[in-house]
């Protein structure tokens, strides 16, 4: 992930302009997998071109699928009707949770032999709850190194569908997403997935259900913990919708919306708006609570300045379980707010690209913020005055976490220039981030 030099930004005063967002990572990877599993050809438009979606594309190609990148972010996938042509493969998943978890489940339904591994950090990100769910229907999965973590080996096995499959929902919603997409392939009878405990990151489940519906499978949710998968009526479970346009990425939008709030604005993001299926659009509401002016249309959102009488944003206390990714942006916006900002229910930050609570706390302190962290929360208080801001000569570390790099670009609106180390980690979801950022700031 290294290669690009560290960058120094700012101090910046103004943000103004508009940005066309790259495609949503969450929608892109779900659409690629569902297109691969369906019958027919799917033309995916505005597909995200980034590390996370490249590992998914490469894995599908290794599995024998035809996945063809065309000009203008169009990708054409020839579906395999549910059975991957290749029955034995060793797949590298980088650090893409949206690739390894759903693919593991789809591969466990195949009756072939597969190995899935990733970068070192991926081998510290849990997968046990998903493996436990898959074992309930007879999948044979072994851990190669540490119990509960990739790399994993899937062995050929007979899948025996059960009427209820249980999965924990409080570590990552991606385990439920993975089961939801894979179990229809083998559902000779209806299956109920029962979520044990709290279901975090719930809006991502809604993305999963909406995309499955586009590919012909409708899942009922009679209550918050139950998901009813219909019995399959033929071997061709998923059917290509022909074309599918990927919305702009709402998490990527958060950095630019934040710029509108801290840099006078207006800044407009194009590609997500009132019609979005992504939960992270609620980030704009959080900025509104902090005092920013928000307006939106079907597929755009705009933020300009602050409506508070003192011209400053105000700190807020907010439950972030539904916006785990965009919540990181709030932690840095807090540097420009009066009063503390408390982000609650963010325990999952600790098991993502890095321990994001620890990393965020450490780097915010480097610029002079007062920070308190707990197992599942963070409180950020801005430096009291310009003199209390600091500019660490060693720079802000990014921990190979794209969101750390993107979030901390906003801190260049403080009184000092800011060095960001290893900025190239943005390639995970937004390779052109710093070029787009430069277009709207001065
Ligand atoms: O399903 C998805 O597309 C995602 C779910 C979320 O993860 P968790 O469910 O692990 O919180 C989110 O953080 C991740 O970036 C994408
Ligand atoms: C948590 C994230 O990624 P992943 O899909 O790898 O879980 C993220 O993009 O913030």
UniProtKB/TrEMBL annotation:
One of its GO terms (cellular component) is cytoplasm. The active site is at residue 325. PROSITE patterns: EPSP_SYNTHASE_1, EPSP_SYNTHASE_2. GO terms for molecular function: 3-phosphoshikimate 1-carboxyvinyltransferase activity. It is found in: Cytoplasm. Phosphoenolpyruvate binds at residues 25, 97, 125, 174, 356, 403, 428. Residues 13-435 form the Enolpyruvate transferase domain. Keywords: Amino-acid biosynthesis, Aromatic amino acid biosynthesis, Cytoplasm, Transferase. GO terms for biological process: amino acid biosynthetic process; aromatic amino acid family biosynthetic process; chorismate biosynthetic process. It catalyses: 3-phosphoshikimate + phosphoenolpyruvate = 5-O-(1-carboxyvinyl)-3-phosphoshikimate + phosphate. It is an enzyme of class 2 (transferase). 3-phosphoshikimate binds at residues 25-26, 30, 172-174, 201, 325, 352. SUPFAM superfamilies: EPT/RTPC-like. Catalyzes the transfer of the enolpyruvyl moiety of phosphoenolpyruvate (PEP) to the 5-hydroxyl of shikimate-3-phosphate (S3P) to produce enolpyruvyl shikimate-3-phosphate and inorganic phosphate. PANTHER family: AROM/DEHYDROQUINATE SYNTHASE, PENTAFUNCTIONAL AROM POLYPEPTIDE. Monomer. This is 3-phosphoshikimate 1-carboxyvinyltransferase. The gene is aroA.
């Amino acid at each position: 992930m290294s290669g690009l030099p560290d960058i120094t930004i700012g101090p910046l005063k103004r943000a103004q302009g508009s940005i066309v967002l790259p495609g949503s990572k969450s929608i892109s990877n779900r659409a690629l997998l569902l297109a691969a599993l369906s019958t027919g050809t799917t033309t995916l438009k505005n597909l995200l071109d980034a590390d996370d979606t490249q590992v998914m594309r490469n894995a599908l190609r290794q599995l024998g699928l035809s996945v063809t990148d065309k000009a203008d972010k169009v990708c054409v996938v020839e579906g395999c009707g549910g059975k991957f042509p290749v029955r034995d493969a060793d797949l590298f998943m980088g650090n893409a949770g949206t690739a390894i978890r759903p693919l593991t489940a789809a591969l466990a339904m195949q009756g072939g032999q597969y190995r899935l591994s990733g970068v070192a950090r991926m081998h510290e990100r849990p997968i046990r709850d998903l493996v436990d769910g898959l074992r309930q229907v007879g999948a044979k999965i072994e851990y190669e190194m540490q119990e509960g973590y990739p790399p994993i080996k899937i062995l050929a096995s007979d899948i025996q569908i059960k009427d209820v499959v249980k999965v924990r929902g409080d570590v990552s919603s991606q385990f439920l997403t993975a089961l939801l997409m894979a179990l229809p392939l083998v559902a000779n009878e209806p299956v109920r997935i029962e979520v044990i405990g709290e279901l975090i990151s719930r809006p991502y489940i809604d993305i999963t259900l909406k995309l499955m519906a586009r590919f012909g499978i409708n899942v009922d949710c009679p209550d918050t913990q139950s998901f009813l998968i219909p019995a399959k009526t033929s071997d061709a479970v998923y059917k290509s919708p022909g074309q599918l346009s990927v919305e702009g990425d709402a998490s990527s939008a958060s950095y630019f919306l934040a710029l509108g709030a801290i840099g006078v604005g207006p800044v407009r993001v194009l590609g997500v708006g009132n019609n979005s299926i992504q939960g992270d659009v609620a980030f704009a509401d959080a900025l509104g609570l902090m005092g920013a002016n928000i307006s939106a249309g079907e597929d755009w959102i705009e933020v300009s300045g602050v409506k508070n009488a003192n011209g400053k944003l105000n700190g807020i206390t907010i439950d972030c379980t539904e916006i785990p990714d965009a919540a990181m942006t709030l932690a840095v916006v807090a540097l420009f707010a009066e009063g503390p900002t408390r982000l609650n229910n963010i325990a999952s930050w600790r098991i993502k690209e890095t321990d994001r609570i620890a990393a965020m706390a450490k780097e915010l302190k480097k610029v002079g913020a007062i920070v308190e962290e707990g197992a599942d929360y963070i409180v950020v208080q801005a430096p009291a005055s310009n003199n209390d801001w600091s500019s660490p000569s060693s720079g802000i570390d990014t921990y190979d976490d794209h969101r750390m790099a993107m979030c901390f670009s906003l801190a260049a609106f403080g009184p000092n220039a800011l060095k960001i180390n290893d900025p190239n980690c943005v390639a995970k979801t937004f390779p052109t981030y710093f070029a787009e950022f430069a277009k709207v700031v001065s």
